[in-house]
């Protein structure tokens, strides 16, 4: 995607050929800044502190984190794997990327590992871009069908959290269909949930859409159901950090409530996902997916820009009140209209997924 006319990915190899640069997403939307990663520990911190976030980008950063680690210690595969895996428990792309890197590198002579790690990490990133662009094309077809059914009116799409290009290497998952449809000239409008507690919708999704010129409106998290009741939402599209083999989806906290509202109002609820986000080893998302609990400060404090341009953090709860900060929830497959993957759109069922990924059926 482009920022001020310049094309960017969210992660890239620096000009020195070995360090890695990222967009520091904790500084958005008020300050666009990049950060250079040079060590395993810096890559792990970038993931844990959410300088990078979104399941596909977490996986890509972990892949480059492995490369940085092996540049320093070619025998350090297991240490790098364990260090990076411990950063975020919910997004399955993290483990997928680390397993891929370890398989590729473990059998190589130590002197060849670092170079091979950089090549493999770059391949992870390039593949992610292709996957997400394909998701965009398949999802845009859904938006086009709705547009054809209501000529002269915009298609109103509700999304939750940030599943745009900032959450991936490029294009995004849930926003990729929106970008594709917008570029195809389809009249559309996006309702952007603010997405507490970190406000990734208001700060990241809105920043992306604004930069790209896509019509949008920021709403507080609890407005979605009201809009659906009054016919102001045509479809919902969200991302997912882990999808089970039967189609349950785990996404940013609050997604389940949007799915319930959509179900009650007969509004299509789609989830866009790259195949590395599917965890084929589990079926029951509510029981089996670990839900990350993050520090309470994400709930108790808000950071923003004051009228005179200063960036300040303020406390918004009473002193002494305890905080629970569950980062994700699980939406059961029965509430999901369909899954948008790089191979097409399918029902949120075991058979739907296996119909697109026949190789998994053969492996059973």
TrEMBL record:
UniProt keyword Amino-acid biosynthesis, yes or no: yes
Domain of life according to the entry: Bacteria
Enzyme Commission number: 5.3.1.23
One of the GO BP terms on file: L-methionine salvage from methylthioadenosine
Active site per UniProt: 241
Residues where substrate binds: 53-55, 88, 200, 251-252
Metabolic or biological pathway, per its Swiss-Prot or TrEMBL entry: Amino-acid biosynthesis; L-methionine biosynthesis via salvage pathway; L-methionine from S-methyl-5-thio-alpha-D-ribose 1-phosphate: step 1/6
Residues with site note (Transition state stabilizer): 161
SUPFAM superfamilies: NagB/RpiA/CoA transferase-like
Keyword set, alphabetical order: Amino-acid biosynthesis, Isomerase, Methionine biosynthesis
Catalytic activity: 5-deoxy-alpha-D-ribose 1-phosphate = 5-deoxy-D-ribulose 1-phosphate; 5-(methylsulfanyl)-alpha-D-ribose 1-phosphate = 5-(methylsulfanyl)-D-ribulose 1-phosphate
GO molecular function: S-methyl-5-thioribose-1-phosphate isomerase activity
Pfam families per UniProt: IF-2B
Similarity comment: family membership: Belongs to the EIF-2B alpha/beta/delta subunits family. MtnA subfamily.
Main function: Catalyzes the interconversion of methylthioribose-1-phosphate (MTR-1-P) into methylthioribulose-1-phosphate (MTRu-1-P). Also catalyzes the interconversion of 5-deoxyribose 1-phosphate and 5-deoxyribulose 1-phosphate. Part of a bifunctional DHAP-shunt salvage pathway for SAM by-products.
Protein name: Methylthioribose-1-phosphate isomerase
Organism: Skermanella aerolata
Name of the gene: mtnA
């Amino acid at each position: 995607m482009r920022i001020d006319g310049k094309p960017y990915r969210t992660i890239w190899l620096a000009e020195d050929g070995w360090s890695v640069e990222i967009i520091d997403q904790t500084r958005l939307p008020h300050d666009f800044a990049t950060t250079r990663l040079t060590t395993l520990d810096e890559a792990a911190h970038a993931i844990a502190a959410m300088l990078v976030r979104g399941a596909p980008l977490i996986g890509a950063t972990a892949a480059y984190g492995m490369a940085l680690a092996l540049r320093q210690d070619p025998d350090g595969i297991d240490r790098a794997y364990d260090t990076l895996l411990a950063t975020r428990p919910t997004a399955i792309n993290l483990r997928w990327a680390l397993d891929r890197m370890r398989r590729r590198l473990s059998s190589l002579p130590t002197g060849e590992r670092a170079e091979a790690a950089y090549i493999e990490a770059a391949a992870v990133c390039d593949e992610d871009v292709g996957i997400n662009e394909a998701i965009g094309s398949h999802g845009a077809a859904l938006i086009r069908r709705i547009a054809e059914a209501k000529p002269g009116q915009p298609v109103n799409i509700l999304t939750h959290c940030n599943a745009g290009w900032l959450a991936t290497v490029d294009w995004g998952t849930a926003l990729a269909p929106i970008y594709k449809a917008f570029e195809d000239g389809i009249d559309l409008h996006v309702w952007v949930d603010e997405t507490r507690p970190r406000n990734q919708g208001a700060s990241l999704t809105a920043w992306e859409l604004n930069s790209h010129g896509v019509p949008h409106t920021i709403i507080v998290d609890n407005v979605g159901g009201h809009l659906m009741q009054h016919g102001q939402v045509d479809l919902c599209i969200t991302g997912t950090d882990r999808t089970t083999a039967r189609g349950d989806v785990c996404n940013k906290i609050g997604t389940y409530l949007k799915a319930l509202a959509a179900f009650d109002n007969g509004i299509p609820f789609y989830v866009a996902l790259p195949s590395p986000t599917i965890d084929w080893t589990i079926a029951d998302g509510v029981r089996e997916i670990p839900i990350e609990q993050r520090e309470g400060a994400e709930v108790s404090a808000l950071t923003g820009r004051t009228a005179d341009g200063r960036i300040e953090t303020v406390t918004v709860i009473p002193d002494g009140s305890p905080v629970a900060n569950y980062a994700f929830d699980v939406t059961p497959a029965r509430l999901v209209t369909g899954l948008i993957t790089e191979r097409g759109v399918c029902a949120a069922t075991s058979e739907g997924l296996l119909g697109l990924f026949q190789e998994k059926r053969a492996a059973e």
